[in-house]
Amino acid sequence: MATETEEIRGLGHRVKRKEDDRFIRGKGTYIDDIKLPGMLHMAILRSPYAHATITGIDVSKAQAIPGVVAVVTGELMAQHNLAWMPTLSGDTQAVLATDKVRFQGQEVAAVIAEDLYTAKDALELIMVEYDPIEPIVTPQRAMEPSAPVIRTDKEGQDSNHIYHWESGDKEATDRAFAGADRVVALDTFYPRSHPAPVETCGCVADINPATGQATIYMTSQAPHAIRTVFALVAGLPEENIRIVSPDIGGGFGNKVPVYPGYVVATAASLLLGRPVKWIEDRSENLISTGFARDFHMHGEMALKDDGTMTGLRVSLLADEGAFHADAQPSKFKVGLFHIVTGSYDLPAAHVTADGAYTNKAPGGVAYRCSFRVTEASYLIERLVQNAAYELGMDPADLRLKNFIGKDQFPYTSATGFVYDSGDYHAAMSLALEKVSYRELRKEQEEARARGELVGIGLASFTEVVGAGPHKDYDILGLKMNDGAELRIHPTGKAILKISVQTQGQGHETTFAQIVAEELGIQPEDVKVMHGDTDNTPYGLGTYASRSTPVSGAATAMVARRVRQKAARIAAHLLEVSEEDVEFSKGKFSVKGAPDKVVTIQDAAFAAYTNFPDGMEPGLEGVYYYDPPNLTFPFGTYAVVVEVDPDTGVWKVRRMVAVDDCGVRINPMIVEGQIHGGLCEGFGIAAMEQITFDENGNCIGANFTDYLLPTAWETPRFELGETVTPSPHHPIGAKGVGESATVGSPAAFVNAVIDALWPLGVRNIDMPLTSAKVWEAIQAAGGSTST
Ligand code: CDP
């Protein structure tokens, strides 16, 4: 495809990112760049306690400071019926606390002032009296009958248990385990981590008192859905609400939810009749906005002695924080975790999940993963590695034996997904070849004989992205479909308006390439607009790698619709019937007479100047895409590490990543996405963790406690690709944005455990800090020195 369309630069071309022209010049427009006349500034007072009853709030001193325009409390919000708001999982969340505080950093009051410094100074003068209650910092403690109930606000809620959810066939799974030669089990914990986008969350709410027009500039990955939620929650007429998400400095799932700050700033602008700006600082972002993961997982695999996998049993306990706010379709209480059977032909599986309230920030966002797939992928890949060792098999051979075969697609998993396409053997074979796996195993034996700890870790993941088909996938009842609107101007230049919202993924380039492929208009001539609800078609936004599978498909479909009309115009210009016209690379020609040509640009001009009688003038269209299925990108990652037994320090010697995301629109952008994802996966495996002390104090509220990998720590990545098109996607693409973060943590951890297995180490929970690795070596009695 790439060579055919070389001159047009549609699919498969490494087109440089159009958006970088403004970014590298420092000319991006982020929320904090927006300054409106008469704009006020808001700062939020947050709870120092994780769990406490509020017995009094005195705002009089704060209110008296010159420059303070208003102090907002939960009580004031309650008067406007805005003290509580819905979460993405249909629970309720306090906007400003009225009764209790339920996590450290929870929003208690807000000051609106002429400038930010005055607002922050005034926060210090708000007197809040708290009566502390025992903080619950683990879901295990939360589930004990003696634990204090966190959600006393909810009628009928007499424990901290939120949900019980099951997937798969319990009886069939029990039968598989009863007949198994061997059962391998693993308990593991996927720690709480945070997406930590470079730009924190914020907004500028501007409500015109004269017209009622509400324009809210907001760091949002899902502006259309937010507009609808605002209309429903605040009772504002939807046509008067315009959400603008300009340039977004990274989202990674963190900018999907509605946060209290957005609601308070909007209410304040409504009440005061002036624009109000609110921007979080780094600690506020880390302690109070959507976290990710925090799953305690138990997995068991049933196997035959020859390595055939026969069953999988999984139970989970999720730490949901104080409000159940997981970003996920309402049908699935733990998102798409039931993809936990991964890339394997497992005939039986059963998954149970329970969620518990704790005194921590809410979240469960799709942090570079599609609704909990990261946790699922981690569990199965750790379990498979341990199973291989227990069976005395090579981990690559165990995988190759049990992979779903390429002829088995479409494949229905034991938990009910229909995998669209795949060739797992090919991806793994390429990864093994690139890393010289078989030779490495020999080298490892020699190294072990010398007392060196060398480990080789593999992870073969299957992602599930592109939510999704309207029957099963929604957010708060809104079906997860997306639109694209395309207009070709008389000069043949185009504007494409998309419902998804780029936060650095390069949509302005790749979506223009889809139009280029379909219509033959160069990507430079296709301007891509997004992030403004008044000016783009409706859709559910960008997260969980859904942009390409859903809005990318809508883009291809609308371009085809426009092409059909252009063909009718071309037939008119060529004075032939439409059936006699054929299209290739931006040119319409007469079948059998290739010299008679009308370009797409000629047809566009004629759409406004010389169209046939009876035809509606203009050349534009809109398409809303309801995907028939999800898409299932996949890959195999291989990591080689060396572990120092005396310090526990581990170093990545090699990292090979083979990804298959179907047809690649822009290979350069895909590789960038994979690099970013691998870097995040490495960070999670090696250093990222938000934890809490026994009082519920958040450890990880700044970048000296919450460690992100920099270029210094990040290993070099070697990439490879296979191409297995998605059969139902109009251009055969699968999403890729999340895959590497989903697939790689297990590969890093598997490599370290591989190195330490002979010493007796069976598992270390992430992050694998050198201290933890050293302790595990000591505990296994395998150290050479102390
Ligand atoms: O939803 P999000 O944009 O985060 O994820 P995605 O759909 O996986 O796409 C990430 C970026 O990679 C976008 O710019 C896509 O257009 C691009 N991409 C691509 O060029 N080819 C693919 N097969 C998949 C994604």
Describe this structure in words.
The chain is α+β, with helices and mostly antiparallel strands. It has 19 helices and 35 strands. The strands form ten sheets. It has a seven-stranded mixed β-sheet, with helices on both faces. A five-stranded mixed β-sheet has the order 9-18-16-15-10. Helix 17 packs across helix 18. It is globular, with a radius of gyration of 27 Å. The termini are far apart. Mean pLDDT is 96; it is low at 1-6. The chain binds cytidine-5'-diphosphate.
How do the strands and helices of this protein lay out in sequence?
Blueprint: H1 20-23, E1 40-46, E2 52-58, H2 60-63, E3 68-73, H3 74-79, E4 84-86, E5 92-94, E6 100-101, E7 107-113, H4 116-123, E8 127-132, H5 139-142, E9 161-168, H6 170-178, E10 182-190, E11 202-207, E12 214-218, H7 223-234, E13 241-244, H8 260-272, E14 276-279, H9 282-288, E15 295-303, E16 309-321, E17 333-336, E18 349-357, H10 373-391, H11 395-402, E19 411-412, E20 418-419, H12 424-435, H13 437-449, E21 453-462, E22 474-475, E23 478-479, E24 482-488, E25 494-498, H14 507-519, E26 526-529, H15 547-574, E27 581-584, E28 587-590, E29 593-599, H16 600-609, E30 620-625, E31 634-643, E32 650-660, H17 667-686, E33 691-692, E34 698-699, E35 718-721, H18 739-756, H19 770-779
Parallel strand pairs: 1-14, 12-13, 16-18, 25-26, 32-35
Antiparallel strand pairs: 1-7, 2-6, 2-8, 3-7, 4-5, 9-18, 10-15, 11-12, 11-14, 15-16, 19-20, 21-31, 22-23, 24-25, 24-30, 27-28, 28-29, 31-32, 33-34
Helix pairs in contact: 10-11, 10-18, 14-15, 15-16, 17-18
Bound molecules: cytidine-5'-diphosphate.
